[in-house]
Amino acid sequence: MDTPKKQYWKTKLHDIIYEAETPAGKLFDVVLLITIITSIILVMLESVNSIDIKYHNFLNISEWIITILFSIEYIARIITVKKPFKYITSFYGIIDLLSTVPKYISLIFGGVHALAALRALRLLRIFRILKLARYLGASNNLVNALKASRAKISVFLFAVLIIAIILGTIMYLIEGEENGFSNIPKSVYWCIVTLTTVGFGDIAPQTPLGQFIASLVMILGYGIIAVPTGIVSAEYSTQKKSKKESKNQKVHLNSLSCVNCMAEKHKDGAQFCYKCGHNLHND
Amino acid sequence: MDTPKKQYWKTKLHDIIYEAETPAGKLFDVVLLITIITSIILVMLESVNSIDIKYHNFLNISEWIITILFSIEYIARIITVKKPFKYITSFYGIIDLLSTVPKYISLIFGGVHALAALRALRLLRIFRILKLARYLGASNNLVNALKASRAKISVFLFAVLIIAIILGTIMYLIEGEENGFSNIPKSVYWCIVTLTTVGFGDIAPQTPLGQFIASLVMILGYGIIAVPTGIVSAEYSTQKKSKKESKNQKVHLNSLSCVNCMAEKHKDGAQFCYKCGHNLHND
Amino acid sequence: MDTPKKQYWKTKLHDIIYEAETPAGKLFDVVLLITIITSIILVMLESVNSIDIKYHNFLNISEWIITILFSIEYIARIITVKKPFKYITSFYGIIDLLSTVPKYISLIFGGVHALAALRALRLLRIFRILKLARYLGASNNLVNALKASRAKISVFLFAVLIIAIILGTIMYLIEGEENGFSNIPKSVYWCIVTLTTVGFGDIAPQTPLGQFIASLVMILGYGIIAVPTGIVSAEYSTQKKSKKESKNQKVHLNSLSCVNCMAEKHKDGAQFCYKCGHNLHND
Amino acid sequence: MDTPKKQYWKTKLHDIIYEAETPAGKLFDVVLLITIITSIILVMLESVNSIDIKYHNFLNISEWIITILFSIEYIARIITVKKPFKYITSFYGIIDLLSTVPKYISLIFGGVHALAALRALRLLRIFRILKLARYLGASNNLVNALKASRAKISVFLFAVLIIAIILGTIMYLIEGEENGFSNIPKSVYWCIVTLTTVGFGDIAPQTPLGQFIASLVMILGYGIIAVPTGIVSAEYSTQKKSKKESKNQKVHLNSLSCVNCMAEKHKDGAQFCYKCGHNLHND
User: Where would you find the membrane-spanning parts of this chain (chains A, B, C, D) (predicted)?
Assistant: First the structure.
């Protein structure tokens, strides 16, 4: 369908957008990174009333520039990917869309509050540029340790929740509405605030019995914080050891990504995509 | 005493209620789980005044339905168990009774506050359905680690309590009633709030000397949190290793429970109950 | 100097007071334990105004009974020990004295506030009865782990203090008196409150810059809590291992204490005191 | 350029100031330590209004004495070092200058607030005297453990920051200005306060939905505190083991420092500076 020249430009653009190791690709990533961070700072500043009043025009124009840049990027991504629909429905595809849409909608419906803040989701795009997943690849054991302890931590958190509901109900009975424990959900909220040792103090027990039970809750919370820590710590140690033992795990990954299916983490020297079999070096 | 047909139905019902692996048993567990969670949400909503006023009738009727369902289940459990008295006096037997009784009592004495909240104890029944103990069986090392470190953690908590009483008394002497430390129990309460790094802030030292000692308390609390964490972490590591070493620990447990004595965690292929010797497969 | 009969009674009394393994010694310890705990509860209740007004006489008489009991015990201890002066100047000797004196002084000077609370120090006597040190002997690795990591934890706490002073000074400059950071010591206090994640909230940054730096302080505090935990955890693991390796460490200690020098933790079957050479079984 | 006598005195002075093992050097260090601590206490006291008014003259004169002492020390350091410029531009050189300058400037511009507090930076000089780095040398594994886990902790803190921004924005949308979440930066600040379990309570969610999300934030914060702890703990264990294995690491360092380039941590018996080749024992 495409002429060879068009095809050439598409491949070129694909390299710039999706690859991180060519000079152009690196530049693209850095520019994108700066744009995203600028955009987040703008969203933040806009929410500060005194700043918004003073610099409204500047903020508005900057936001339009960023929105247009993101729109161009979004379209470029759709064009250069071989399977655009797959990209559009992917996690990053949706985030990319949500990064551009709010400003356009505000043209029609006016500056809706919630829409403006939606732009903070742009922050999630940072993960793509930093390819944090790959960076974490170096500390894969941490991720593995968390995965290995996920089930246990879930059971632990579930137990914490049940403790919070039961103790929250007891506190509601003891303290009652006149001391701020106006209903069970609020008491449970207080109990979580206390168990996690956050302790806002907006609600605090006033009766001696309430303070006694609160003390038990605090000591309990102080004690059980040891559990997730112990689990992660032990699992992480295990991961480190097992990695040491199997030295043949050191497979070098390059930063190429397949033009066809967008798969990443190809082995060094790989000729074909491990996922779709597309020739990686011969587009 | 029972006719064979009656006996058949009793066994059938027993399977549904106590076993988790037949389709009927699974369905029963799921329905019970939903009922318990619904009932807890109802108790919570009822305690919120604004909701209670609006939807009083709906909440009242739902509560009656749940109470009747629980009553039926309670009676069914008594009938199908061979030793009903043992069930009634068991932990879950009492919880089951407490789950149904409050609504009936409210008929006679009116909607007593404390009774309503008693229903939150229904939450404890969740543990039976989820057979959490068994699920935790997979992460048995955690339980063992906690058991192994129980004694040390007790000594640790006891030491924390003594520190709290002595430092609380000192703070009472320094700060006095005018700064909120109105008596020793309250000062001890404040000390626990601070040692556990909760820090509500409803009572806070105002004098320079008081703030200096408070700083010491905080740093102490910040330091000693390392102790239980270190213990659990190390014990857990040990448990993991010892488990690895003894591979013959992997005894598969099934989800049967004895009709005679309600014992659970029978080995796979066990013919007789390990507790009372009752034939498990030949009721 | 002493007649044989007197000598006999002294040895008898010494056994009751200082030994824990004879029936009389055990009874003495239990009675003393109950007296101490009762006395602490009395001190606490006395500090609560509403209770003190109601039950003043009861509290006063109980306190006199306890004071007299403690006085008798103190004199008995002096008589039965071979080196009374050593006992009087020892840590527990001073605590014992401080446990009895306040009530007598209150006769002369009236019920001075501070004196009353001094009685809370009686709690320290519990350690002697429980011989907690020995109980901890079972979990000696914990004590060793803490000892081994003492130096590092000191350096760590010292670094925390320096961070608190420097960041406290910065916060004082940024927030100033109008936001509660009225002087540097108070700012440092706030900084410790925040670093240890206690967070009373009686002083809280109000300016954007102050809140930004506060965020850094919090994340720092959240991060460095890992350090003491990691140290204790690792040291404790090491202690456990080294204990396993050297099986010949299991030296059984008995609960005898030398009549001559009061040294404890004699090996089972030891004939002479390891400290002063006094014959342990031949008083 | 220098006469032999002058040269002799310079070397002598260098030994006193830079070496810690001669009696004169030790005395110098102790005096300096006391001066620095006194000076910090003065800065602190000066900031307390009530004290400053009472003892203004005493504080002012003491401060002048300390400033002059520090000035003399600063000049002496410049004279005795072979490469003065390198010292002046070094970290400690700048700290030393900042320790003396504020009081002189206050002569011209009056007692500027910020200048006074700048003197708190003197505290940093303590690190030089204590040669904490060397002391930590004993617990080098801790430093290595922190270095080894630096990358992972950075990624972790970065993830925490992103979570804080996104959850902060959500809380801003839910709670809004009327409940204290007046703009996104403030909401993010609140989110960090909560995630780190500090919980000042100056801002606290009021709406049920806000309290529900706050509960999630707290449990998240409570859970992820396990991650840095687990990392440091595991890395520290590894460091300890690897140190045990390689016994030949025990290189004794002496406390000499090169007159030429000020390099420290020379091996015992080293004849020449490892950095600049200067003869260490033949000045």
Answer: 27-45, 57-76, 104-124, 155-174, 212-234
